[in-house]
Amino acid sequence: MDRSSVRSGEMAKSTQLIDNEVFRAYATYAAIVLVKMMLMSLVTAYFRITRKAFANPEDTASFGKGDSAKKFLRTDADVERVRRGHLNDLENIVPFFGIGLLYALCGPDLSTALLHFRIFAGARIFHTFAYLIPLPQPSRGLSWAVGYAVTISMAYKVLSKALYL
Amino acid sequence: MDRSSVRSGEMAKSTQLIDNEVFRAYATYAAIVLVKMMLMSLVTAYFRITRKAFANPEDTASFGKGDSAKKFLRTDADVERVRRGHLNDLENIVPFFGIGLLYALCGPDLSTALLHFRIFAGARIFHTFAYLIPLPQPSRGLSWAVGYAVTISMAYKVLSKALYL
Amino acid sequence: MDRSSVRSGEMAKSTQLIDNEVFRAYATYAAIVLVKMMLMSLVTAYFRITRKAFANPEDTASFGKGDSAKKFLRTDADVERVRRGHLNDLENIVPFFGIGLLYALCGPDLSTALLHFRIFAGARIFHTFAYLIPLPQPSRGLSWAVGYAVTISMAYKVLSKALYL
Question: What are the EC numbers (chains A, B, C) (predicted)?
Answer without folding.
Answer: 2.5.1.18
